[in-house]
């Protein structure tokens, strides 16, 4: 987990036995760790949300975005594919690799432009969005080359409890509560979609249970 993921937010679930989950702190780029986790827990679905996700930080220091989002996705794909190849029967037929991406891959939405759709061309405009676009293409390549059962969803900006305070919505709320100036970027006329994290989670579950292999869905 990166700084924005705030490991302290997971204190209540770490190092505790639970019937519904097991918590593992691991590096997505660590081949041996990912392999061990997959073969130990034998998942029916891999939902890939791990990412370095801050646009400004990707501009100041692109290394983390490139390494985590591209190499990390490659590593997770390869280890998941090796695990999938070891499966048999319905367990193999029903397996899914669900890659979570971003609408940032479509570029900037200017005033008066139509909303993005699943058919919108990719036009990433930052190291972060370029790294996520690259990871999308890796996932598609693994599906087409190896018949690996993948699905991609591209989501808009998420917000909700425990979000890191540098993100726009918690930053606006905190500044307002402290009677401080609200941050305005550029002209302030940019268009953004916002998605509550619980709604996103429900959408991901629906897609992974009902989505067609090889499909891409905007959320």
Automatic annotation (TrEMBL):
Gene3D superfamilies listed in its UniProt record: NAD(P)-binding Rossmann-like Domain
UniProt xrefs under InterPro entries: NAD(P)-bd_dom, NAD(P)-bd_dom_sf
Domain NAD(P)-binding: 3-212
Protein name (Swiss-Prot/TrEMBL): NAD(P)-binding domain-containing protein
Natural source organism: marine metagenome
């Amino acid at each position: 987990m990166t700084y924005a993921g705030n490991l302290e937010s997971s204190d209540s679930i770490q190092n505790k036995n639970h019937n519904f989950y097991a918590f593992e702190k691991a590096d997505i780029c660590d081949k041996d760790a990912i392999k061990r986790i997959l073969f130990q827990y034998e998942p029916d679905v891999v939902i890939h949300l791990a990412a370095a996700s801050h646009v400004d930080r990707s501009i100041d220091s692109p290394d983390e975005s490139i390494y985590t989002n591209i190499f990390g996705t490659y590593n997770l794909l390869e280890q998941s594919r090796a695990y999938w190849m070891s499966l048999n029967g319905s367990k193999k037929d029903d397996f899914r690799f669900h890659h979570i991406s971003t609408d940032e891959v479509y570029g900037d939405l200017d005033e008066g432009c139509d909303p993005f759709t699943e058919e919108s061309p990719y036009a990433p405009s930052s190291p972060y969005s370029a790294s996520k676009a690259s990871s999308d293409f890796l996932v598609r390549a693994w599906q087409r080359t190896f018949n690996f059962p993948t699905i991609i969803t591209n989501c808009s900006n998420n917000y909700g409890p425990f979000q890191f305070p540098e993100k726009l919505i918690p930053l606006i709320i905190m500044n307002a509560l402290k009677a401080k100036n609200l941050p305005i970027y550029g002209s302030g006329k940019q268009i953004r979609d916002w998605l509550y994290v619980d709604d996103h989670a429900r959408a991901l579950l629906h897609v992974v249970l009902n989505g067609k292999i090889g499909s891409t869905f905007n959320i």
